[in-house]
Amino acid sequence: MKENKDAISHLLMRIEDIPAVKNILNTICLYTGMDLGLVTSHNGHQWIACAVRDSLGVGVTAGQQLELHYTLGDEAHDKHAPIIIPDIDHCENEDWKRKLYAKGFKSYIAFPIVDNDGLFFGTLCTIDYKAVSIDRERIAPLFELLAELISFHLSSIAKIKNTQALLGEELQYSERRDTLLSVLGHDLKNPLSAVITLSQYLADKLENAKHKQTAKLIYDSSYRMKGLIDNMLDFARSKLGTGIHLNKNLVELDKVILQALREIQTSAPHRKVQTNLGAKHPVTCDHERMAQVFSNLIGNSFRHGLAENTIVIKSSIESDRFIFQIENDGHQIAAPIFNNLFKPFVGRKNQKEGGLGLGLYISKQIITAHSGDIHVKCFDEKVVFTLWIPI
């Protein structure tokens, strides 16, 4: 019994989700001159009234199981065919006569409602105690169109609810995934910091050239891994809603740029870099975050710029802004990638090294948190990143 009630409630909810049903019932009653309009559904063994417009006063309500005299819909169900009876007295079907005479009904119209998969849902019908004069050529297309409209809404609403359910599951999955990334990143940072510190110490202290080179390789790989973890952690924080927090102090940013450059140049000492740094005054900003931005942008130029050409790095203070610019020669960036460079997980087809595609996204978030901006331009096979923050 409970399952049956739940099934009926589900049917009613499906129809109640369609605001147009009320107007549809009003329309068919108006055009036919009949006073009882119904949307019915057949669940395999019984007919249910899903929506009712009762000006006839027969007492049918939504959710009610329909008696035999309301249910000539078996023909519509079995053959997916419409039924049009302007006057039952002139009908040759004795079974239909018996059913309608039982309640004194004279006229009856029912059109099948069939979903996009060809499955029968129910009928759109009108009933009255009086006979009516019906122009079949006008009424039939109207009923057919309105029945199709109900079917369309049923299918669309079902798809929307299914999509919403899938989206809810995906959001939960994304939250768990981002939490995992955050926890994993924190767990990796401490041992990795120890590896970086020790490898840097060994690279400075070891005298054997081969051992020194090995320590340097460990340092370079570990430092790159640290950058990936930092970006991953920041991405997870942004998705978890905690955002990028700043710890602002007065910082000499030219020194930060040079430090970031030195760390990256250790893995590519033969790359040519020209610096023109003119930010002579300290800037109020987050030292670590700006170092992360410079490291991301310089590393990006090292990875994507042509190895034989010079990378140009500039800084200046103009009016009330600190401005940083880095330029490298490189291949033209495809428009779909160029237009989305500052979005997460966007890669370059000519990328020489693997990566998460988060560096530019995180840099954009950090600069935005500083109330600044960052943009990129491509011209004459040159790629130029420019950022500014208020001093």
The low-confidence runs, each spanning 5 or more residues with pLDDT under 50, are: none
Q: Oligomeric state of the chains? A: single chain
Please describe the biggest sheet, giving its number of strands, its sense, and whether it closes into a barrel: 5 strands, antiparallel
Query: Distance between termini?
Result: 73 Å
Shape: rod-shaped
Give the total of beta strands: 12
CATH topology of the largest domain: Heat Shock Protein 90
The helix/strand series, from N terminus to C terminus, equals: HHEEHEHEEHHEHEEHEEHHEE
Q: Structural class per helix/strand content?
A: alpha+beta
Percent of residues in β-strands? 15-25%
Radius of gyration: 36 Å
Strands of the biggest beta sheet: in what spatial order?
2-1-5-4-3
Q: Provide the CATH superfamily of the largest domain.
A: Histidine kinase-like ATPase, C-terminal domain
Concise overview:
This protein is α+β, with helices and mostly antiparallel strands. The protein is 49% helix and 21% strand. It has three domains: 133 residues, Beta-Lactamase (2-Layer Sandwich); 82 residues, Helix Hairpins, CATH 1.10.287; 147 residues, Heat Shock Protein 90 (2-Layer Sandwich), CATH 3.30.565.10.
Can you characterise this structure?
Pfam families: GAF, HATPase_c, HisKA. It comes from Sphingobacterium siyangense. It is a single chain. The chain has 391 residues and is α+β, with helices and mostly antiparallel strands. It folds into 3 domains: 2-134, GAF domain (Beta-Lactamase); 162-243, Helix Hairpins; 244-390, Heat Shock Protein 90. Helices cover 49% and strands 21% of the residues. The strands form 3 sheets. A 5-stranded antiparallel sheet has the order 2-1-5-4-3, with helices on both faces. Strands 7-9-10-12-11 form a 5-stranded mixed sheet, covered by helices on one side. β4 and β5 form a beta hairpin. α7 crosses α8. The radius of gyration is 36 Å and the shape is rod-shaped. The two termini are 73 Å apart. 31% of the residues are buried.
